[in-house]
Amino acid sequence: MVRARAAVTAAPPSAFNQRVRILLAAALVMAVVATSCGGETCLTLSACVAPAPSRSVSPTDSAAPVVAASPLPTRTATPTPSAPGVEALIQQIDTAKLNDHLLALTSVVSRDVHHPGHAKALAYLKEQLGAMGVQVDSYRNVYQGIPLESLLVTIDPLNAPPTAGWVMICAHYDSISNRSPGWNASTSAAPGADDNGTGTAALLEYARILAQNRASLAHRIVLAFFDGEELFFKGSGAYVSSLAKPYPYSAVINIDMVGFNPIADRLDLIWYTNGSAGLRDRVAAANERYGIGIAPLNAQFAGDGNTILDAAPFGLAGMPAVALVQRYGENDATFPGNYTFHTVNDTPANVSNRRLWLKAAKLTLAAALDLATRN
């Protein structure tokens, strides 16, 4: 039921009543302004991004002044750190870790494929690589009834699928001491510190660094620990024969015997066929670009496989391939001759130039990264 409203005759407004009405109207305006934000009603003043509109207050108006709202803080995205470049990556090579690996590899007495120490060295490599969380595949072949096992460590880019143009860095881990009197492959010591504990230790360091910096890569890197090199590269040669054409590798860089030279920080840069000339020049340019300081760096052409290096089967098959080695050829004013290699005296104590070893490790990795980090 609707109640009828009684008729009321309003009295003329007095001056006091008019002032009350003005104050009430002003308060109402202030309330609307304080809760309005760009035409939309805000639950709280602090939720407004734009300042509240200002208004003039008359001398007779007792309403509190309007406070402009503070804008919300702008959210800034945290920038993603850029992936380390070549210079930063090669500086991560740890000389203490290189030395630790060298001592471990030589502690097995011999890595000759006929000696029990060979299996111990292989187990050490697998243990170290397994702890790094990298993908390790075995490549097995047999030579004259001798089982050989090479390890292939594949490190792919973090943010892109691998494409053609793989880059390989390789070193052999087997040893021999056939230049020692009374040598017996099954029982004689063959510590192989310089040949090629230095290169093998460097590969282990590369695996550690690259596994932690895959975001820097644009192409696949394969680290190959070849077996049977001392039998005239029977591990790497068999592996090359197993590859389908077109070959997936755009470059192969071999590091072998890089820790002996009491006179100079020199290395030889072995290259194969005209197809390797461009890679040869890239390695020489990396030595200058990154201030590595190998001098002299002597380019030497190898037209056949008589330079017993794991780069040879790749280069002779037509793939760009080079090897960094302390000396191939006669002694000269910058190399006195390493008379301990392939003997029982190739020990860590006779790795006489640790500075050269580090430079060789840096140059090998720098040259590979120059190729593997570009699109």
Number of separate structural domains: 2
Q: Helical segment tally?
A: 9
Counting DSSP E segments of at least 2 residues, the number of strands comes to: 10
Strand content: 15-25%
The span between the termini is 85 Å
Question: What is the CATH topology assignment of the largest domain?
Answer: Aminopeptidase
CATH superfamily of the largest domain: Zn peptidases
Q: Helices and strands: which structural class? A: alpha/beta
Question: Gyration radius, to the nearest Å?
Answer: 37 Å
Reading off the top of the CATH hierarchy, the class of the largest domain is best stated as Alpha Beta
Strand order, sheet with most strands: 3-4-6-5-7-10-8-9
The whole-number mean of residue pLDDT values reads 83
Unreliable segments of 5+ consecutive residues: 1-80
> Main β-sheet, in a few words?
8 strands, mixed
CATH architecture of the largest domain: 3-Layer(aba) Sandwich
Overall outline? globular
Helix content: 25-40%
Series of secondary-structure elements, N-terminal to C-terminal: HEEHHHEEEHEHEEHEHEH
Describe the structure.
With 375 residues, the protein is an alpha/beta fold. The chain folds into two domains: 17-72, no CATH class; 86-372, 3-Layer(aba) Sandwich (Aminopeptidase). 32% of the residues lie in helices and 15% in strands. It is built from nine helices and ten strands. It has helices spanning 15-34, 86-90, 95-106, 116-132, 193-211, 234-242, 277-289, 311-316, 354-372; strands at residues 36-37, 40-41, 135-143, 146-155, 166-172, 221-226, 249-255, 267-271, 297-301, 321-325. The protein has an eight-stranded mixed β-sheet, with helices on both faces. A hairpin with a 2-residue loop joins β1 (36-37) and β2 (40-41). α3 (95-106) crosses α5 (193-211) and α4 packs parallel to α5 (193-211). The N and C termini lie far apart (85 Å).
